[in-house]
């Protein structure tokens, strides 16, 4: 896959996820740690806007390097929400538990993907 396609694929992933924060926000609300101030829905919308914004930066060659760095930082920033999901799902049925636990190691390849796009932009 060419570097441009890699960047566009990452943009599609982030953009699609960002849109889902608005289309079906409830599952995202549950990922918001209670320790954050304000309402979970506000954080859901802020993260959705952030994901769409980063996706747009990734699509433009001139802003791709910065967008990829922001994508890597975003993947690190949402990791506590994935930890919360894993903790909240520890007593759920196995399929739900596997999804929650599977998200944890998935963050690191996403960070590496974003950094690769940054380095080759």
UniProtKB/TrEMBL annotation:
Transmembrane segments: 66-87
This protein's UniProt keywords: Membrane, Transmembrane, Transmembrane helix
Protein name: DoxX family membrane protein
């Amino acid at each position: 896959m060419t570097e441009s396609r890699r960047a566009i694929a990452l943009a599609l992933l982030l953009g699609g996820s960002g849109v889902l924060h608005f289309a079906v926000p409830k599952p995202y609300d549950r990922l918001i740690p209670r320790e954050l101030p304000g309402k979970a829905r506000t954080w859901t919308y802020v993260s959705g806007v952030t994901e769409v914004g980063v996706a747009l930066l990734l699509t433009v060659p001139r802003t791709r390097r910065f967008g990829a760095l922001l994508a890597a930082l975003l993947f690190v920033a949402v990791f506590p929400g994935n930890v919360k999901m894993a903790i909240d799902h520890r007593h759920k049925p196995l399929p739900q538990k596997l999804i929650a636990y599977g998200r944890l190691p998935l963050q690191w390849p996403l960070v590496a993907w974003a950094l690769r796009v940054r380095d080759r932009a």
